[in-house]
Amino acid sequence: MTETEIACQLYICVNQSSNSVDKRRFMIAMPRIVAALAQDIYAEHYQPQRMTAFAVQDPKLREIFAPNFRDRLAQHWLISLINPSIARSWIDDCYSNRVGKGTHSAIERLQHFMRKPHNRYYCQMDIRSFFTSIDRQILLKLWHAQWVKLDYSAQTLRQINAVAVKIILQNPIDPKPLLSGDLALLRQIPPHKSLFHSPAGIGLPIGSLSSQFFSNLYLNPLDQFIKHQLKINAYLRYVDDFMILGDQPQILLGQMRQIDQFLAEHLTLQLHPNKTVLQRVNQGANFLGYIVYPHHCYIRQRTLRTLRKRIYFFNGLLDPVHYPCHTMPVNGSWAKWLSLHQLHPPLNVNPVLLKRMLGTINSYYGQLIHANSYQLRRKIYHEMLGPIKRYFLPSNANYTQLHIKAIWLRSPP
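The chain above was modelled as a monomer; its predicted structure follows.
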């Protein structure tokens, strides 16, 4: 692949990426960034730069290592070239970070399995500290087994491999990452969940597009083992959360022990001892943000609590006296937006602010419409929104989403 061809593909990746704050910030310098990156990839000299580390609490406390814009662009380029071919060899019931799949497809598939008369029980498993336990040398071997199968010229294969190997073997804490956000929160991360405490050569960063792809590549041997050696048809996985279903609990327990042994022997992983659940299908399964039953599902209370916090925060932006925001977000899209525009409560109501609020609220409505939640959706609008209710209306009688009242979209005189 020529340097010009690489640059053209990088520009395609720029156009396909989300309209992030970093993207807008680097837009003027984009030609220089793309030209320099294309030259490095072409010459097989690509080297990832230091990351930014911070902690998030939504939905739970996690450590995030975010690559800079240049490295995110390189990852987009890499995944766009390798994912279509390599992902074809993965099982259909791997649902994480795959085009045309996702959480709702996984839940529908689980319900399909639950409705089978011979699937009276399920065994749900979770891998302990998955991302911080990945052995990068094992991942490298799995990558090399797939890389040679790609249908590209020898030169392009070398360029792809050079970028992939650098990303796989990158030590997220060397050079020392830039620390961001609430450092006290970052220090609360348990050592077994932090890359700062991982042994040499162990762990992939959460927060990278490449990590999403390579996590599926790393667990593909597990998927193949369960499907083709254990011969379990009723199996599905989303990242490191997976399920098997069957008619006899003792058989499921035996299969769970075989899975745990395979993980230890082949992938240096282990099941989380406190997150294995074996129970009847008709009792429901706590899976991917929903309580799932064979014919219906409900939203988790944790998701609803998070929505309540968001609504309180929005009211606090407009009326900090009656809605004091003791915990302003220190990272994430809202924190970046407030910081970029140097905004501090109380804020004046304007279409830009309302559209951002609406986007967040409707993202929750987007989750709710996949559950049995009509009464809850109605209650959110009529009882939970508080003062900001005056700016929004339901878009239809089913309360599937909200929209901004037309009067608040008018330009000020």
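The chain is about 45% helix and 10% strand.
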